[in-house]
Design brief:
binds pyridoxal-5'-phosphate; alpha/beta; globular; 4-stranded mixed β-sheet
Length: 404
């Protein structure tokens, strides 16, 4: 069997479709976010990053960095074990209390990533709750989809952000089956936000538990960075809130929060929690510092919102088509994988602007896009430079404009 040829054949197919992924190699520069050095074959060049999920620059915050350094100096690098076998550190316990407080829940449970937290929590709920049915929003993240698949529970997909469709689908399943409604708050590719209250109303009506992924919202929304549910005063209506420490909090790791019994249940039965080394204590310490900072400081969120509004306004001025939404994510639609990559390449090489092309399978074919995430540290000059660059590319490539 010629395995190399099998590998290469599928890679060649990807390349022919324009969907082959090429990573841009970046060296982030502490204190200069969103600036980074892009490593190329001909050397390094300075670029401005426009697609970072370190939305608020917290990964470069001096207090967060210090927390990591201090914890590493006092406790070392690794946790030294799984949570069960010698790996539970004071930093984990403290961070879990911080997260439970952030979401006003009884308890929290850490995982090695947001991906693992979704996969493990949904996998455990779906397989352990007898005869469960999981109602999954059509645009849920891959980590939720994989968790549901792994659970082998029955799955019903409801129309994206459509509580009426959810209602119909819940009604079609016998009342005595345990039901889980799984959805996100901010959908990261279109930047649209779920109608959380309506979804909770429908879930309550059918006795379903609610599971929300607030990965793109924690740190970003709500007076203390508790997410969209916090900003709407709805945290108590959600059974399980899932989040990441790797995006706005600028660190690494994932978590769930909920009742004591719920977290204990996942802790006790989830393979993805039990059989893996715990987060490095220094990472937990840094994440806790970042959460504490964003609980009391709103300036990062406010400044970010300003820069998001400015970029949208300038894109409108130049007639660059972008998806309208009420989040911090600005998708500029290209609709073709080859063009999308080409524009991204030119932005990087000619303008020092880094925005990764978003192609299939991250988004459906034909909806390829550039996804901009302005942060508090992007200057007005950065925004102007970006818009001028896009404007000249729109001219060169004869791309369609939207009438302002
Ligand atoms: C990034 C992401 C995750 C995974 O979080 P990580 O901490 O990066 O593993 C989960 N859900 C959504 C919606 C995401 O975008």
């Amino acid at each position: 069997m010629d395995f190399e040829a099998l590998f290469q054949g599928q890679l060649d197919d990807l390349k022919a479709e324009g969907n082959y992924r090429i990573f841009a190699e970046m060296e982030r520069k502490c204190g200069h976010h969103p600036r980074a050095a892009n490593q190329t074959e001909t050397g390094a060049r300075d670029v401005t990053v426009w697609c970072s999920n370190d939305y608020l620059g917290m990964g470069h915050h001096p207090d967060v960095i210090n927390a990591m350094i201090e914890a590493a100096k006092s406790c070392g690098t690794g946790a030294g074990g799984t949570r069960n076998i010698s790996g539970t550190a004071v930093q984990h316990v403290s961070l879990e209390a911080e997260l439970a407080d952030l979401h006003q829940k009884e308890a929290a449970l850490l995982f090695t990533s947001g991906y693992v937290s979704n996969w493990a929590a949904l996998g455990t709920l779906g397989s352990r709750l007898p005869n469960a049915v999981i109602f999954s929003d059509a645009l849920n993240h891959a980590s939720m989809i994989e968790g549901i698949r792994h659970s082998r529970a029955d799955k019903v997909i409801w129309k994206h952000n459509d509580p009426e469709d959810l209602d119909r689908k819940l009604a079609a399943v016998p009342a005595d089956r345990p039901k889980i409604v799984a959805f996100e708050s901010v959908y990261s590719m279109d930047g649209d936000i779920a109608p959380i209250a309506e979804i909770c109303d429908v879930a309550d009506k059918h006795g379903a538990m609610t599971y929300i992924d607030e990965v793109h919202a924690v740190g970003m929304y709500g007076p203390r960075g508790g997410g969209v549910a916090e900003s709407l005063g709805l945290m108590d209506r959600i059974t399980l809130i899932e989040g990441t420490l790797g995006k706005a909090f600028g660190c690494f790791g994932g978590y769930i929060t909920g009742s004591k019994a719920l977290c204990d249940f996942i802790r006790s039965f989830s393979s993805g929690f039990i059989f893996t080394t715990a987060l490095p204590p220094a990472v937990a310490a840094a994440a806790q510092k970042s959460i504490q900072h964003l609980k009391s400081s709103d300036v990062e969120r406010q400044r970010q919102r300003e820069q998001v509004a400015k970029l949208r306004a300038r894109l409108d001025y130049f007639g660059i088509p972008h998806l309208d939404n009420s989040s911090h994510i600005i998708p500029v639609m290209i609709g073709d994988p080859v063009k999308c990559r080409m524009i991204s390449d030119i932005l990087l090489s000619d303008f020092g602007i880094y925005v990764q092309p978003i192609n299939y399978p991250t988004v459906p074919k034909g909806t390829e896009r550039l996804r901009f995430t302005p942060g508090p540290l992007h200057t007005d000059a950065d925004i102007e430079h970006l818009c001028q660059a896009l404007n000249s590319l729109w001219q060169q490539c004869a791309l369609s404009r939207q009438v302002a």
